[in-house]
């Protein structure tokens, strides 16, 4: 008997030595507060640079649009000038022909024909008037075309100057955008490096927790063997809640309720999304927000609070303490000291000893192995 007590004590000592703290930790705590703070700061800076890049890109796009509009207007002005050149050439030819025609002796519009053909002085004046009016009309058309052409040529020069200025603005904005893009790329690499380091640390702590769990199970096995040798000497201690927590149900309960297993697929679809405190999707979550969102997609409304969610499960009599009684879709809880009145974390059990949860900033929604030692406060269905 003494050797069994010694073995159990050593096992517990190994468990304590391996443990850096039970998991999951509080949503406001991190595996390494210093490293997590660096990751958060790097991410914040990255977000700031990304926003600057978005603004710079928008400004560059607008400048490029303005330049393209000016270039299009220049092209249209060139076409208009070319068209006027044709009209001007045609008008000048027509005017020249009419002037030449007025001096031909064999045409009715020549000055001689006008004089000879007139029957009286009034008709003579009329013929001269209309002949000159035709020439004047053609001259006015030519001058009008010339004036319009000159205006367009001036417009073309103004647009060319505007184009040069806009081109300069575009080039300057392209340079500015490229510089910000370089900052984003550099910060992205820095953030990913820190995040990778954090993920490695999390993996190491996960391994330590696995060792802790193995040590705990060994301790339980040793305790069961000891109790078996003691017979029924401890049966008088049954009845009542040994930890004094009024929120915990009977630890002998084996019915976790009827959780909808399809909620597992919804939860898994959120893996990889970010952790933001007090959010409940669809793009970011905290731990209880993930539960609220996933069950909400099933048409089941659940309060956005891990403590309230625990109370719902406990109130329905669905709380179990052994993973062997959990079903996919059940909620799993952790509380300080394992207390049901001090719940700080919740996840969704997916079967096979694993669960989905919104872990912490920098980690986000992940699938983790379920360890029930330490602060584990049980699990079950909220429906």
Structure report:
This protein has 383 residues and is of the alpha+beta class. It contains seven helices and seven strands, in the order αααααββααβββββ. It has helices at residues 2-18, 33-101, 111-117, 121-230, 263-268, 287-296, 306-315, and strands at 274-275, 284-285, 331-335, 343-351, 354-358, 365-369, 376-380. It has a five-stranded antiparallel β-sheet. Strands 1-2 form a two-stranded parallel ribbon. The model is unreliable at 1-31, 105-112 and 232-249 (pLDDT under 50).
List the uncertain runs: 1-31, 105-112, 232-249
In round numbers, the mean pLDDT is 75
Q: What is the H/E order?
A: HHHHHEEHHEEEEE
Structural class: alpha+beta
Count of individual helical segments: 7
Coarse shape = elongated
Main β-sheet, spatial strand arrangement? 6-5-4-3-7
| Through-space gap between termini | 46 Å
Rg of Cα set: 44 Å
What is the tally of beta strands? 7
Range of strand content: 5-15%
Biggest sheet layout = 5 strands, antiparallel
Q: What percentage of residues falls in helices of 4 or more residues? A: 55-70%
Question: Which terms would index this structure?
Answer:
alpha+beta, 5-stranded antiparallel sheet, two-stranded parallel sheet, 7 helices, 60% helix, elongated, disordered N terminus
In a nutshell, what does this entry contain?
The chain is α+β, with helices and mostly antiparallel strands and about 375 residues long. Helix content is about 60%, strand content about 10%.
């Amino acid at each position: 008997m003494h050797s069994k007590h010694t073995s159990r004590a050593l096992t517990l000592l190994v468990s304590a030595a391996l443990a850096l703290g039970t998991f999951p930790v509080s949503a406001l705590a991190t595996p390494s507060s210093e490293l997590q703070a660096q990751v958060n700061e790097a991410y914040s800076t990255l977000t700031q640079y990304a926003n600057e890049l978005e603004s710079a890109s928008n400004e560059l796009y607008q400048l490029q649009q303005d330049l393209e509009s000016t270039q299009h207007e220049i092209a249209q002005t060139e076409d208009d000038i070319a068209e006027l050149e044709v009209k001007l050439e045609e008008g000048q030819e027509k005017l020249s022909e009419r002037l030449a025609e007025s001096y031909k002796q064999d045409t009715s519009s020549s000055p001689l024909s006008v004089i000879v053909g007139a029957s009286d002085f009034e008709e003579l004046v009329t013929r001269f008037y209309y002949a000159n009016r035709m020439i004047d009309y053609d001259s006015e058309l030519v001058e009008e075309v010339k004036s319009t052409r000159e205006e367009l040529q001036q417009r073309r020069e103004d647009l060319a100057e505007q184009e040069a200025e806009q081109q300069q603005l575009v080039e300057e904005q392209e340079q500015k955008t490229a510089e910000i893009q370089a900052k984003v790329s550099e910060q992205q690499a820095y953030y990913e490096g820190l995040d990778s380091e954090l993920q490695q640390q999390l993996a190491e702590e996960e391994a330590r927790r696995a060792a802790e769990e193995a040590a705990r199970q060994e301790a339980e096995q040793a305790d069961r063997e000891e109790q078996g040798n003691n017979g029924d000497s401890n049966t008088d201690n049954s009845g009542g809640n040994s930890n004094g927590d009024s929120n915990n149900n009977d630890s002998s309960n084996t019915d976790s309720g009827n959780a909808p297993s399809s909620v597992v697929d919804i939860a898994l679809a959120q893996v990889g999304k970010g952790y933001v405190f007090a959010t409940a999707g669809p793009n970011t979550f905290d731990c209880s927000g993930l539960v609220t969102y996933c069950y909400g997609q099933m048409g089941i409304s659940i309060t956005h609070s891990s403590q309230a969610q625990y109370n719902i499960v406990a109130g329905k009599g669905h709380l179990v303490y052994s993973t062997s009684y959990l079903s996919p879709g059940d909620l799993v809880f952790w509380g300080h000291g394992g207390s049901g009145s001090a719940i700080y974390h919740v996840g969704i059990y997916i079967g096979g000893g694993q669960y989905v949860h919104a872990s912490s900033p920098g980690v986000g929604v992940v699938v983790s192995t379920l360890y029930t030692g330490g602060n584990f406060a049980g699990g079950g269905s909220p429906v």
